[in-house]
Write a structure and sequence with these properties.
Blueprint: H1 3-10, H2 15-42, H3 46-75, H4 81-109, H5 118-147, H6 152-179, H7 185-217
Amino acid sequence: MSELIKWFEKRRETKALTTIQQHLALTTNIVEDLEKAVTAAIKNDEKEKRICIERITKNEREADSLRRKVMDEVSRGELPPTAREDIMHLVKRVDMVADWSRESTRVLNAISMEHVPASIKKGILEMVKGVKECAVLLQKCVNKIMTKPEEALQAADAVEREEEKVDDLHEKSRTLLGKEDMPKAGVAVLIGQLFEALEMIADSCEDACDQVRVIMVRK
């Protein structure tokens, strides 16, 4: 069993672990708000979209602050160097989920949805729902390290399966984007960037779970 897993089991109430869980929960909330923002944009509910994006912006900054706080706590703790690096890499990868969610809102804010065909809107919604599921499963995966380490790998596998679904949706959506007659080229470019940003959220979830696997198998 890795030194980090032993540390998790012995010190579940430490400040660092509490902050990691706060960071995870906040990241999941950010992705959930992203789904709400996308849904609002497609429904042309500008007020709700703006509220969600403002909340994402605020929470992404808070997530950055929590990430730095974890780094500080871990660097001053009693963990061995390798275990310290493992947890830092994990938190950084989780933070990328929040970063790419924020990037998605930047692109979303620039898109005029009235110029987007219904089929493309459907593809965006399907992707963001899959991305949200990846984030929810990631939170479960990381929390399993702290509560039931033997189940963490199963949760990581679930994230990987969901990420593959998002990849498939991304491929289908790009193909559809190439076939649709878009009235404005600029909108088509922005939609492509939104697809890419959403895929990067799912990829970041998978990257974080790969780090969980490293933690689980390290001797």
